[in-house]
Specification:
This protein has three helices and no strands. It is 51% helix and 0% strand. The protein has a domain of 62 residues. The N and C termini lie far apart (76 Å). Helix 2 packs across helix 3. The longest helix is centred in the N-terminal third of the chain and has 20 residues. Pfam families: NB-ARC (PF00931). GO terms for molecular function: ADP binding. InterPro entries: NB-ARC, P-loop_NTPase, Plant_NBS-LRR. Keywords: Plant defense.
């Protein structure tokens, strides 16, 4: 009895192997590369000059305790804040910095 069951299983396996030969198999297509830009080398844009100055002025105003920056991800908010921070660090306007 076991021998007959084994023979049936073997036959089923052979059929599955044959069926599988007709199926297209391969690796998924590779996605195109995404061009990345480093924020370590800041390139100022004319469109950002006003925001840069606005942020600097807000930080220099003693009436401001909290300054926020909002916008879609990837638009350069953090990079702009870091650049303003570098300028303020060089100007020695603040005794402490947190960023």
């Amino acid at each position: 009895r076991r021998g007959k069951e084994l023979a049936n299983k073997e036959e089923q396996i052979k059929k599955l192997i044959e069926t599988g030969k007709d199926l297209a198999m391969g690796l998924p297509a590779r996605l195109p590369d995404v061009e990345r830009y480093s924020s370590q080398h800041y390139i100022p844009f004319k469109s950002r000059e006003s925001k840069y100055k606005e942020l600097l002025d807000a930080l220099k105003d003693d009436n401001n305790y909290i300054i926020g920056s909002k916008g879609m991800g990837g638009t350069g908010k953090t990079t702009l804040a870091k650049e303003v921070g570098k300028e303020l660090k060089q100007s020695k306007q603040f005794t402490h910095d947190i960023l």
